[in-house]
Design a protein that fits this description.
Blueprint: H1 2-8, H2 14-28, E1 32-33, E2 40-44, E3 50-56, E4 59-64, H3 67-80, E5 91-92, E6 95-100, E7 103-107, H4 109-118
Antiparallel strand pairs: 1-2, 2-3, 3-4, 5-6, 6-7
């Protein structure tokens, strides 16, 4: 563990060293990296249960079809790394998540509000379709 800490903090190689470390650990734990998205890992067991993990730098989210697999994964992660369990996801990469009995809803209200403030548009009137509804769009030149 000491070597990892020394190799990581303050050096240009920090992101690569961390990615190699977590990638090796996940492969050893039975995860397979998705070919089309290198931040997505999937693990299955003999019963067809699934554990899906999304890794972005040092943040990760995971979900699965088997609560025991999820609990076991949390346990091995906390044993191997300094990890904080934040419970149900409420925000990830700026996308806010609301989980309730009626479903899961995602939005970017905070981002949108800040964006409107930045361009002094907080008092603009909201519309469902931000374009004229009967306008005919045409290709212009080679664009």
């Amino acid at each position: 563990m000491y070597r990892l800490t020394k190799a990581l903090y303050g050096l240009k190689q920090e992101p690569r060293a961390w990615n190699n470390r977590i990638d090796s650990f996940l492969h050893a734990a039975g995860f397979k990296k998705c070919a089309s998205d290198h931040g997505l890992y999937v693990k299955t067991n003999d019963y067809g249960d699934l554990l899906i993990l999304c890794l972005y730098v040092d943040e990760l989210i995971f979900t699965g079809s088997n609560l025991k697999m999820i609990g076991d994964f949390k346990h091995i992660m906390m044993k191997e790394f300094e990890m904080t369990d934040l419970g149900l996801m409420s925000c990830f990469l700026g996308i806010e998540v609301i989980q309730g009995d009626d479903g899961i809803f995602v939005h970017q209200r905070k981002f949108t509000t800040e964006f409107l403030k930045k361009f002094k548009m907080e008092d603009s009137n909201p519309v469902k379709t931000p374009i004229e509804t009967r306008i005919k769009l045409m290709k212009e030149g080679d664009g």
